[in-house]
Each structure stands twice: as C-alpha cells, then as structure tokens.
Amino acid sequence: MLLEVALSGVTLGGIYALMAIGLSLQHGVARVMNLSHGELLVAAAFATLWFYSGQTFNPLGGLLFLPFAAFIFSYMIHRFLIHPLVSRGATREAQEVNGILVTFALLFVVHGAMVVLKLGGANYSYSFMAGSVKIAGIAVATNRVMAFGLAMAITLAVYLIMAFTRAGTAMRAVAVDPVAAELAGIDTRSASAFAFALGGALVAASGVLASMVLTFNLNASVMFTMKALVAVIVGGLGNLLGAVLAGLMLGLFESGIAAWVDPGLVLAAVYAVFLLVLLVRPQGLLGRSTR
C-alpha cells in the first residue's frame, strides 16, 4: 500500500514540479508572479483534448507544438504588455505589484476567452494509454508513467539550458542581480522576456501531461495556480531545484492524504502544511534567509 501511494504521488508530483519550474522562472528572472499560470495550463489541456477527440491527434504530439505556441504567446505578452506596464514602477517592490495586477487581469482575459468558446464548467477527461505496467509488482497506469517520464525529461532539459547555455547564464545573472547583469552587458529585458516565455512553454507542457492523467474543467485553473504557488514558495522563491523538490513532495502528500485520510481534505491539508512551512521556514526549503 505504501509503495502504491508513493508511485501514484511521484507520477503526479512530476507534473506539479514542471508547472512549478515554469512559475519559478517567471518570478525569479522576470520578477512577475504570474497569477494567470493555471489558465494557460487549462487552455493547453483543452487544446490537447480537442486535438485528440476531434482530430484523432496523439496527445503526445501536443508536446511538439503547444509549448512552442505558448512560448510565442507568453513572449509577446511580456514584451508588449507586462514589461511596459511593470517598468513604470519606481521601485522593485512596486514593479512586482504591477506584475501581479497585470497577470491578474490577464487571468480574466484568458478565462473569458475560454468561456466564449463555450468550454463550460463540466469535467473533462479522455482515455489514452489506458493500460498498466508493473513496477515493483504494483500495477501503475501507463499514462501516469509516461507523464512522469516526460515531465522529468523536460525538467532535465531546462536544467541543461540554465546551466550550459548563454541564455541560461544570462537568466541566472538577471535573477541574482539585474542591475549588475545589465552593467555586464546582458540585455535584461530580453532575458526576462525569454524566461517568462520559457515559463509559459513549461506550463503548457504541464497542461498536455495533466490532461492525460487528470480530470479537469474550466475552473480548475485556480487550483493549478495555487498549487504552483505553494510549490514555488515552499521550495524557495527563485530556486528551481526547490520547486522540483516541493512539486514532488506535494504530489506524494496529496496521494497520502487521499489514500489514508479523506480525498476531500487534500486541499485543506496542503494549505495547512503550506502555512506551517511559512511559519517555521518562511524562505522555503532551499531558499536563503534575507536576514
């Protein structure tokens, strides 16, 4: 039973980790706490469902173009909407507040667009790779194993980009000190826009993978945004490894509560632990204290 819950939690946590990385990049580099994060995830999930049910297109094929489309969309949003409005703030704190307000408005725009498309509040899901595989003698749904494997592969790709490319070095420098990065010749505006766009691509990939294993609806976006926020803050703001660790822990914790306590108490338990972490270690598990 314990191993079964652990396997279920890890596969779910992989998706949470991926969407948390996207939000962590957007906040850590672009200094934007994107409240519309979950809306883009749900939009990607609906797009995957539409292609699969209406066009008989393999959901995994959505990973080839939906993240790319989300990258372009997010880049344009940052370049022509977020940056001009956020840059009006006189201080970094004011800029971050402006970013929250802009993405809060964007949340309603994207949500409204999905309402216009008459997606409604009904629950949606589809059957894909519905078989199972044996892991340590326990049957695990094939689609969950596939989703976890792809989430971890994408996470590794992001690590390699951040660690071994010029773009990754530029983003890390901007995350640490944007003023010093600009003095070193780094185009901080382009680096921030790229990080925000990459975060959008990652959350779209999360939406594709989540649609394979979870039931979703139009109103699920708030839940996904909150879980990404929890993972990012618990892991440590701006710490990608912390976001991955917190995402995996979140999946494990949810599976444990659902199996051993009550599925209806999952969200309440998650937020209770979140508050406890804030009280005991406000900088997050791997975050650095500002004192």
Summed up:
The protein has 291 residues and is mostly helical. The protein is built from eleven helices and two strands, in the order ααααββααααααα. It has helices at 2-28, 37-54, 62-86, 92-116, 142-164, 166-176, 178-183, 188-213, 220-235, 240-260, 266-280, and strands spanning 132-135, 138-141.
Task: Characterise this structure.
This protein is mainly α and 291 residues long. The chain has a single domain (2-280), classed as ABC transporter involved in vitamin B12 uptake, BtuC. It has eleven helices and two strands; from the N terminus they run ααααββααααααα. It has helices at residues 2-28, 37-54, 62-86, 92-116, 142-164, 166-176, 178-183, 188-213, 220-235, 240-260, 266-280; strands at residues 132-135, 138-141. A two-stranded antiparallel ribbon has the order 1-2. A hairpin with a 2-residue loop joins strand 1 (132-135) and strand 2 (138-141). Helix 2 packs parallel to helix 4 and helix 2 packs across helix 9. The longest helix is centred in the first third of the chain and has 27 residues, at 2-28. The chain is globular and about 55 Å long. The relative contact order is 0.21.
Features:
3% strand; ABC transporter involved in vitamin B12 uptake, BtuC; mainly alpha; single chain; two-stranded antiparallel sheet; 291 residues
Number of strands: 2
Q: Judging by the overall fold, what is the CATH architecture?
A: Orthogonal Bundle
**What sequence of helices (H) and strands (E) makes up the elements?**
HHHHEEHHHHHHH
Q: Note the total helix count.
A: 11
CATH class: Mainly Alpha
Percentage of residues in helical conformation: over 70%
Mean pLDDT: 89
Shape: globular
Portion in strands: under 5%
| Computed CA radius of gyration, to the nearest angstrom | 19 Å
Helix/strand-derived category reads mainly alpha
> Which oligomeric form is depicted?
single chain
The span between the termini is 43 Å
CATH topology: ABC transporter involved in vitamin B12 uptake, BtuC
How many structural domains are formed by the residues?
A: 1
The residue ranges in which pLDDT falls below 50 over 5 or more consecutive positions are: none
Going across the biggest sheet, name each strand in turn: 1-2
Largest sheet report: 2 strands, antiparallel
